[in-house]
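Response to reviewer comment R2.3. The reviewers asked that we include at least one raw input/output pair. We reproduce the pair for P53-induced death domain protein 1 here without editing.
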Amino acid sequence: MAELLGLGDKCGEGTSGAPVLAGSCLADNRLNLDVYPDGCHRFLQLFEGRRGEVVQVEFLRLSSNDRLLGTTLGILPHLKHLKSLVLKGGHARDEFGSCQYGSLTSLPPDVGNLRCLTHLDISFNSLSTLPSCILHLPSLRMLLVSHNSLVALPEDFGSLSKLTFFSAMKNQLKDLPQSIGELAVLQELDLSENALEFLPEEVGNLRNCTELDLSGNRLSSIPDSLANLKSLRRLHLHSNLLVTVPASLASLPNLSRLDLQNNCLRTVPPEIQTSPFVRLQGNPLGETEPSPQADEPSAGGLRRLFLASGEDSFTVTSEGCKVFLACGIHFYFPPGTASDPLQIYFRTLTPDPQWVKLRHHDVLLSTVLELQPHGVKFQQEVQIWLPYASPQTLHQREVVVRTFSGQSWSDLRTRVEQKRKSKKHVAHCSVLHFSWFLVVSRLVQNECKVPTEGTLLFSSVDPNIKVTFPPGVTEETRNVKLQVLPVSAEEIEEITADAGCRASPLLCLSQDSLVDFLRPVRIQLPLPPGVTGLNLDRSRLHLLHGDLEGQTWDDITSQVVLEFTHLYAVFEVTHFSWYWLWYTTKTYIGGIAKKVYERLRMYQVNFIALQRKKDPEQVLLQCVPKHKVDPVLKKLQDRYRGPEPSDMVEMFEGEQFFATFERGICIDMDRPDCVDGRLLFIFYSHLKNMKEIYVTSPVDRKGQAVKGQVSFYRGAVPESIPEDASRRRKGPDSLWLATLPIKLPRLKPRWAENPGPLNGFSFPPLNLGNAETGYLTQANLLSIARRVGADWQTIGLNLGLTYQQIERIGYNNREDLDKQILDMLFSWAQQNSEDPDCVNKLITAMKESGRQDIADEVETIIELGRQKYRESIRRVGLEQESSTEDSAIAMM
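Raw output as returned:
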């Protein structure tokens, strides 16, 4: 396989500009043109100019992202000697950096005449059905169709009698043909990440199969016939819906790995549960079956509640219900959850690092969901689905729901699902109590119970890492957790600037007991990359022990007995923490390890400050991970302009920073997140670190523009910033991160400068809304009017004004856009001043008109009003006391 996929020498052009097929290019009759963006064009030129040599090619690679692929396909049947054909997509990337699928949807029928073809790779394409010509390839041994859109395989798929390897991962297969059992010599079968709901019994006829991957499907059971696969060594069934597995799997003579993680197994046959090669993490073992199932409740006519964005509560009765929130969160309350009607309150909160404590290497993927009443125990488990930002760039990690008990955070057993229509990811968990919930990505955690008899714990990230607990290691059973952070040689070299430095994966061990083990625990770690027992220089190898916070790293090489095999280092310890193998000539290795550890936790980011083209006073501030800067700017370039992003800086997940406007620019109005003109931000790599605000200047702008700036500083918002802070931006103790220019243009005489009567206009005093939900005043409406611009007619219609009213306003104030906007907005306000829901109608109209920016500004004003109202009530002692609210405040 590796030989077939290797790149040969390149084809080039001669001195005359005509393509040549150099002898070196056809070494071993290989032609690799997928490395060229115009590979198909080169192939067509070669075929036209040197046909005699091209038809002898045995190994051909082309990119299916090439626009000339269709023309090229017609030539393929002429290559009678072809043994390996690769027509993969994924060579081009979209604006977000994701691989683009190839344009291949079929193959010419005559491709079936390639009698020598043994290897065909058409992955990362747009195939919805398998081309029929493939079934006529008599010598085909390896077939790869992964990352397509196949929903089924042909009924006569088993006619590929010589097939030894087949991969169809990442398709949409719902079932398999019975003929799949006729693939008598098949050795490896990968059907992972499809939509399979059942397997035919004939799968048990694949007697030469050594590896079978069925992970990431919808299987609730597997046939007993799998026990016939006597050659099977590895069986992957994780991330399905399995509720049972046949005990006969444990009797397979060659099986060395059975992965059953993240299923719905509540009981497992003892023969399987006690097998050392079985993975069972992520299953609800020992739990009782919920009744009914969340996805298919057996109670007919179960009540379904769909809540709008402004609602914050609903009622649960003994009949149960399904509840869907506008933000994408939904719940399932089975019948009997509550014996009496119970009012449930909910709200989403911006994560605050003061009380949302992320552990090292955790990544936050959602906002915080608070559910009340706290502490009430339900009679049935309530199931919750939380949408989250999919961590596409995070590998070898797992997604969990984290909840706060009032004392500490803990992780719930979580199942990751993907919505069928939207393809969005959700985290699914079950709870008996309500509190605070959020979704995080963490290092994969393997855990086990250590009894007096001892046990063995492997890492699922790197099976070469294992921990052996000997008999007598503990008097009482204790829980042990293992996490591994892989570290590449490239990362080590980049951070240390030393090509000679190497390090093993970083191992973290923890337990639920404060007592050291009674006997030494044996740990096996792989040697650093490029180091083996044959070339090992022991003077360069260091075993480091770090504290749980990674602040100190001690070299304990001389304190333990290190044993070496060809690939591993083995040592014994009695207490748990971080362990790390380093191979280097450096002496002060502890300091280097601390530096590398900190850098591994950091993200490279850039700051952007953009001004809206139609309204330069509207400023967008955002902190963007480095790899997302270009697609973010491309998305915003039609509506915003501004300077180039700042230089790259490094930040921790959950780190606070703030922005302050300087040199004659200030924020236009009060905001809950603004303290004395400074905006607080919290960096979370997978959430939007963005705020859109309006700025102004106390400087007279009639004569000239104001050239100011916005600066970003590390840390929480301080009480005061020295006036010369902009001049003290260097040195290790500097809080300054970046500064970007902001320019406010010279003002033309406008109504906005005079909020009083203007050319016959007088603005009556207004208080839209109510005290409890927050008012919109005359001054607020004037500020909003400044932002409306040419969208005023659309906004007016969405507010409920008639076409005749809009036309009359336009005619009466012709040639004066400012007056048209004011007339429209205050006409609506006077008509609706008695409507308590008028503010929500204004927000909705702005959203429907495509002015999310104004809608956000109105919501900010209203939220500030609510806060001031609650504070005033609290000061006069009228607020109803609540023990749950007190506990929430104490927690924060």
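Residues 852-875 form the longest helix (24 residues). The chain has a mean pLDDT of 80. Further pairs are available on request from the corresponding author.
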